[in-house]
Amino acid sequence: MAARVDARQMSTEPAYGKGVRVRRFYTKPGVHPYDEIEWETRDAVIQNAKGDIVFEQKNVEVPKHYSQTATNILVSKYFRGRLGTPERETSVRQMVRRVAKTISDFGRSGGYFLTEEDANVFEAELTSILVNQRAAFNSPVWFNVGVNPKPQCSACFINSVQDDMRSILNLAVTEGMLFKYGSGSGSNLSNLRSSKERLNNSSGKSSGPVSFMKGLDAFAGVIKSGGKTRRAAKMVILDADHPDIVEFTWCKAKEEKKAHALIDAGYDGSIDGDAYASIFFQNANNSVRATDEFMQAVVNDGEFYTKYVLGKDPCERFKARELMHQIAEAAWECGDPGMQYDTTINDWHTCANTDRIYASNPCSEYMFLNDTACNLASVNLMKFRTENGGFDVEAYTHACRIMITAQEIVVDYSSYPTPAIEQNSWDYRPLGLGYANLGALLMSMGIPYDSEKGRNLASALTSILSGSAYEQSAAIAEKLGPFRGYAKNESSMLRVMRKHRDAAYRIDEEGVPTNILSEARASWDRALAAGETYGYRNSQISVLAPTGTIGFLMDCQTTGIEPPIALVSYKWLVGGGMLKLVNETVPEALHALRYTEAEIRDILNYIDTNDTIEGAPHVKEEHLPVFDCAFKAARGKRSISPMGHVHMMAAVQPFISGAISKTVNLPAESTVEDVMNTYIEGWKLGLKAIAIYRDGCKRAQPLTTSKETSKHETKSETSITANANATIGPSSVGETFTPRRRRLPDERRAITHKFQIGPHEGYITVGLYEDGTPGEVFITMNKEGSTLSGLLDSFATAVSVGLQYGVPLKTLVNKFAHMRFEPSGFTPNPHIRMAKSIVDYIFRWLALKFLSSEERQALGLKVESASPILAEGDAEADIVKEFVKEDDRQGNLLSQNVMKDSVSGVQSLTATIDNQADAPACDTCGSIMIRNAACYKCLNCGSTSGCS
């Protein structure tokens, strides 16, 4: 085998004669890929929630088929050079050429190509793949390749830590530098002795890993706030048999309760507000690492012992099921901890003779040796659809081979944060090829996501991705030699390759076209045969990442392995503004299901009006599962069940070198037992990791903090106080103020609103002052004379007196919104889909009617609704508008902001699970981000937290 050559010994001159052959597939000799694309010039503009421009670059050249969203994001994120200077990139041609040519030149000097012609073909093919959105690298590649001589190309890192103070502090330094530059980091702290163990040569006890987690969390928070407003991407793991596992399990949930108490006391409850800023563990995802021994004890209701870190002697005895119940209960309360299944992870470990796998990156898709890094790339599955609705297997495998070759090339030419990570990257060369748009692909082919056919097809496509990539890795190893650690790990590497191949032969053929199933198996036959002869260039080859920003870059309808969120989506227009559209995949699905053009028009019109396909004309009942999405529509009843997500993960896991970045969303009414069963089923089905998020489990509410917002809020409160003729305000020493009551006139306008929460119906009547502000509230329940009706009547009287004495409505809303008690349930109001109580409904409705969008945002209430709360033609709106006209002249509080809908309203009214509940504000545009697996992404400008 050829000796390994690394970047430290390479020259910049081309080296041919020992590399691989590259064949043409997408390109033609003598024709540049750019010449086969129609181009146009546009402006790239990104606005924040207030309509202020936060980014603008005019006259940029992009392929005509790119959406405006893709244009805005790639120009703002990936164009290099300072704005307004000649060095600034102005065309996608320049951006793609910078990356594709630089990587190709790395390959030329690294000896990756047999001839100069092969190098030229590779550059042309890579250029075609990238510019046509067939695949994309993770963000660090777009940021740094062609800009820095030694670019940082990896998004995912795993760091080790030992049981001594120097190592712990070194971990803080390493993580800090990674956070500074936007990368994610994960560590297993189980090496740190527990709080139940003694210090060396001392009678004192160790402070334990949870104590050090506070310090590491604080550093992450400081670096976050000192650089960008988004939270750091960080994973913390502790083994289930560590003596401090119970403290670790509850650490975030207990801090969450502190935040709740502070919020109830009036402190700012936003993600960056005083309540959450004063508690620990908010900058990390926590996971418990469990062995099969522990999980089997859970199933059998057996006993389990924790073990001292020093000496490994038994520490405490637990009923394993009771400990798992605590883990599930903590996750039910705050979303953490997730689970990682240690035995399964290490059973699929290709380098077991070097060391075990202890940890993962923040999103849990990259799992490998400590002190390693992984550069990611994702293939866009929708780009391999054929005109007749089939799937082009040959085009898909070719793209996978070209992309994995490009990822391999940059390993030696990249920079790394520590010498250990650099050396391990050179020695083991782990890579992370994945895909995006699986949910859109299945829907477009008329296959339900939550079905055996859908899972079988996903299994086959994932098998092809990893099999063809490992085959290419073996082809490169034939020419340049396998990774340095291969000889030591040959037996474990080939054992895992055989496990992948065996899984491929177990794929059920139902729903899988013959050509796809055949290649899903044959690719592993070829990969294993080549590996047995030549070894592999890469120890790992594939992961399924969340594909945040790069999903926008490729105009993906769905990210990673996820199903569609909803049947409607939002598109940025070239001239600015947004347009609500039916998801582009829906008409393709209707064509695949053989509906006529006239029927399709009727169905699309119905979805556009109702945000759901349920009840649409012509649609057959048996076709409804094809259109099931992650969340229920406001007027619908269908969605993909939580276990539907788990089963999809289980279907593709056997074909992934690493794992899958995905959070299983559970509805608010889920129980602790539901969480526990999800964790147990994940283990039984062979997953490597799983995380859950229960709707409403966090009280954090999104808030963009800025001086402008603060000023606005101050003016608003002052204005309310002035309107109420009250003298409450900042007090001076020795002064006493007496509030005055502002009574309503004997004849006053009023608004009456009918509401229903579950089976309970009632009416809210709000009496208005002459200026349109509320001065009294009446609450009438259908069952008069009941205890509930009497209590609500008394409560409404107290609220009315408070309003008349000048208590700001926003203060009352902040105090009473989101209170949880029975009766609670679903409501027909599309703006308040789920009411936690009658009081919760009343005050959220009052906020939507009478507070400005900025005030609602400051209170953590959703303000980016898809349509104005007071719509044109609404009788209630007409009443308020009469007051607005007069109040605008008087400078009063109630302004046109009440009617205004935010331009950044990209969250559809279809979601019944709140995937923004604990999301931070975007550091670029200020819009509220949404959950994307275990991280967050911004639907406005494409920014992400965590791996991208």
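(the above was protein one; protein two follows)
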Amino acid sequence: MHWLNIFYSTTLLLSIAQYMQQSSAQLVQIPSIKSFSRSVLNFVVDSSIQIVVDVDFAHNLTGGFPTLVGFAQTFREDLISVTGFSNISEVQTGKVSADATTSTVFLTLGPSSSSNLTLFNGKSTGEGYEFEVAQKLYTIRGVEAIGAWWGTRTFLQQVVLSIVNGSNPAMIPTGSGEDNPGWEIRGFMLDAGRHWFEIPFLADLCVYASFFKINQFHIHASDFFYDPSFLYGEDWRELYTGFRFQPSSDSPIFNLVPELNESWTQNQFSTLQTTCSNHGVTLIPEIDTPAHSLVITKWKPELMISGTPDLLNLSYPETIPTLKSIWDEILPWFTSSEISIGADEYSASLADDYITFVNEMDEYISGSSGKSIRVWGTNEPSTTESISTNVTIQHWWFPGGSIPVQLMDQGYSIINSDQVFLYLDGKFSDGGQFPWTLNITKMWSGAPDGQGWAPNIFSADDPTNNTSIENPLLRGSIMALWNDWGNNATTPLEVYYQLAQSLAVFAEKTWSGSGVRASALTQDEFQEVYPVLNAAAPGQNLNRDTGLEDGSVAFSYDRISQFPLETSFESVGPPYTLSFSVKPPPTTNTSSTPLFLGLDSILFLDSLSFKDPSTNLRYPLGVDLPPDVFTSLEIHATVNYTYALLNGSTSALYWTSNLDIWGEYMQIVNMSFAAPSYIIGLDGFEGELVNVSLRLGD
């Protein structure tokens, strides 16, 4: 199994073994379990295991998610992934008896009345579940089907940790437990307006996040690249803009989309929504207006405020009707009960216009689709107007933004996205403002009282800006990864590298809080089990793992006599070393012929350029190899960089990108590329290639 082939030290294995053998009411995993009472026996997970769905609830539908049997079918696929048992029987519907003779996972609904499966604020939630583990019967009883789904994530993580601990087959301790999240919203936001992402990658992010019980994926789907020297000059139309929803060709808003090849059709987006919902994740789409609206004013310049092309003129008669026409086109795409209209960073001098706009859009969207709206928490100074309390406000900024505790006192529902704790920026953070991944130490001890962060913590240094976990208007939290520096700052996989651990940290804190449940993970416990669970997360392969151990050779060829040559590996994630010697042809132009091609990267001889096939951007090393002469290369990659060594030299040459930081200065950053491992030498390559090998690990 691929995830077992990562290297673990003896210390790590012993630590995991100690956690797994605890007799306290705890099963160590991410996020932590609310409670578990353990007995002395074990439930064995072998190839004869079966999954049975309670016939009384098999086809219940709630909340836009699959039926219980639909969730069970995805669970079966995941169980095959983490165990390697390809012959697990198909999901059955029916009943089971307590004296089952074959290991059985039974999914049902309706927790007992003795359980307190409510959020920290006392509100009911369908996401809770109970589980009872006997020697042959593992029962997951969800409040709703989504609760049972999260129970299957608990089961899978225990299987993974048991296997890594040396059990073959896996064994799960018998006993009983209950679990539910502390908060309704546990989500992550990705800026897809400034960086283009293809649907398969976004779907994989949903699947990965679901393994850690993240339940919302907020997609910021429109925006522009900010450079004031362009924005406020004659060349403002040259700035990069993105609007990712592609309307039908006969739509009146069809020309709104600047690049059709960087937009999603309705069918493509529907596929994404289905994948996410099948894994318990709701997509929250965002179109950001009336600021951040350059993509709209490039389409209809008459809608902008003169001199500020990114701001819409809300007093112009056609502006709000145009925005309504945009939503009319795409609202039917979305299965979520909420959407975001953005609504941040508008001119404070136009506060009344802004508030009127938000309220009108709230009434319009609610009336036309039944959906409610969210806005970013910009503080608009008005003494005469106020935003409707029907609107959820997503707090992100002190001191110039809204103050969430004051808003909750006024009756507003709040989502915590405060940037001090929860912001990342693709690859580079201007002035070191944001970390590369969420700061683990800050998440465990960065609150004013020395406790860890949780959704009720908005400020790291002012406790008066924080609230209690019981506040009924605190809906939860959404962490954010922005892409301020555009497409050339990161590849999609580099975005995943920033999100991978961050999502797991965030999941623990939004499910269990900090200092609330005795079973919550310590920072050390988290860091022990996270690498195991990351490697095993089923349903996707964002690590681009090969199934081979570190140090293994994925392929090796003394000489390649005929091109193209196809290997068994579409893409190989870092760390790796790709070695080869190449003799370019004497005269043929090689710039258009890839030397190595993979799912996530392409390597050309021309200037030794890597290409990201999702954005079609090239990253040249700036080295042109001499024709008709062999040059040997070693390409080394980690998640933070990729470099080349030529002809045995120890002087590394790094692939980089040059970022425009707010139009004020340029910043060089390293690029990390997955190995272009699938096809070697496409048709048309006329040179020679020898001593080709791909070795895994550092």
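Reviewer note on protein two: The domain at 553-696 is CATH 2.60.120 (Jelly Rolls).
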